[in-house]
Amino acid sequence: MEPSGEREEREEREGTAVAAAGCLIAALAAATGFGVWLNGAAPGLDLGVENPVDFSLLYIELPGMLFGFPLLTLLTWSLARAVLRARGGQGQRRVVKGAVVVLTLLMLSWACGEWLDHRIDRIHPAQCAEKPC
């Protein structure tokens, strides 16, 4: 096989691996977003007699986290791929790109968890907020 044919074959295999990694990252990010939403929104979805259900948790926050987590994670991963394209060894690039994905998911999880805590506190204030309780 000639050198250009080998290069094309290698680029095709690399493209397939990159597409598979992107799909895996998107699925992991969506699952993380759903887990954060489920953990943070559970008190707001309680169907108690005295507590109203806030349906905006279902039609605003849930889709935002299900689609926002993968979108932002894939954007940061693609940016890291573009920046590191010709730098360092292949193993180093993989480690840095993996770290970028993990850090992105951690930061998104923290920010969305704080957001949901704030939203739930507004919906269901603490029972004993006043001094003479």
From TrEMBL:
This is Integral membrane protein. Keywords: Membrane, Transmembrane, Transmembrane helix. It comes from Streptomyces marispadix. The chain crosses the membrane at residues 17-38, 58-83.
